[in-house]
Amino acid sequence: MTKNIKIYKLLTLWFLVLLLAIVISLFVGSTGITWKFENQLDWTIFYKLRVPRTLLALIAGMGLVLSGQIYQTILNNPLADSFTLGLASGATFGSALAVFLGVSIWFVPLFSIFFSLLTLIIVVLITETMVKTFHVATMILSGIFIGAFFSSALYILLLLKPNKVNSMVSYMFGSVSSAETITVEITGGVTLICIIFLFAMSHFIKIIQLGDDKAITLGVNVRVVSWCCLLIAAIMTAVIISFTGIIGFIGMIVPQVVRRVYKVSVRIQMILNLLIGGSLLLIADTVGRVIISPIQIPVGIVLSIIAIPIMMYLMITEQRKKEKG
């Protein structure tokens, strides 16, 4: 009973933090608006700019962090996320290619999903072929190589159509500034469906954590469940990245911190990752908007500045634990 109360208080705390981050994101920016909405300009800024941007940041933070947890859990790799596995670069290239070809906005996520899944399959197959298992170093190196390839291909697209540089370059740094109602509808709908599926599979994910042998003994088809989870996470990530560009590190660091600090079940970890991921990306986007206003820093850059020192700290502490062990 005491443990349940602590978990309830923990979830309530992070839910309140998320609500506060949403309010700050809606009302703080380079152009001030009042709570009273005294003129038409305030309404326009609020509903046409702030609301879509806040919702897209919320969706992106939740989706990227939850997918990071799935990658790390299924692949048993603490460094796995859409950025290190190369999925972000693949999805970004797909989105940029769609922009390059001038296709409808409805087809942009399809291009992103295709190249993201292609990247995932290539990375996993390379890793399995080389070491017959999901080896940490080999998988990350494969992801980095594939990501570098797609980044190079993206640069070629920029050279071929310089007039589309602005729209393509935004994909390279990660931003929610171009949020519109339609982008929120697409990302929100897909992300919600993926989250529901992942929560429905959380019981199997918990069993897989016990090890392949125990999972098989309990009647779980480890390979099928693993691939289903990875594909759902990859689709969710690809759709988000198709409209925001590369937002790195958040999907790697937040799940690690949650797993280390809060010793709770997989499902509670998923809820915490959703709350913390949404809050963090909203706060980072708000900071990027106001810190050197009116110039706006892309949220991907803000998160990188915040995340890199944290990542270094996690690596150092992990090494010290191994030495003591």
UniProtKB/TrEMBL annotation:
InterPro entries (alphabetical): ABC_BtuC-like, ABC_transptr_permease_BtuC
Sorted UniProt keywords: Cell membrane, Membrane, Transmembrane, Transmembrane helix, Transport
Pfam family, one: FecCD
Signal peptide from the UniProt entry: none
Membrane-protein topology: Multi-pass membrane protein
CDD domains reported in the protein's UniProt record: TM_ABC_iron-siderophores_like
Gene3D superfamilies: ABC transporter involved in vitamin B12 uptake, BtuC
SUPFAM superfamilies, alphabetized: ABC transporter involved in vitamin B12 uptake, BtuC
Broad class of the protein's primary localization: membrane
Membrane-spanning segments: 12-33, 54-71, 83-103, 110-127, 139-160, 181-204, 224-250, 271-291, 297-316
Location in the cell: Cell membrane
Protein family: Belongs to the binding-protein-dependent transport system permease family. FecCD subfamily.
Listed name of the protein: Iron ABC transporter permease
Organism: Mammaliicoccus fleurettii
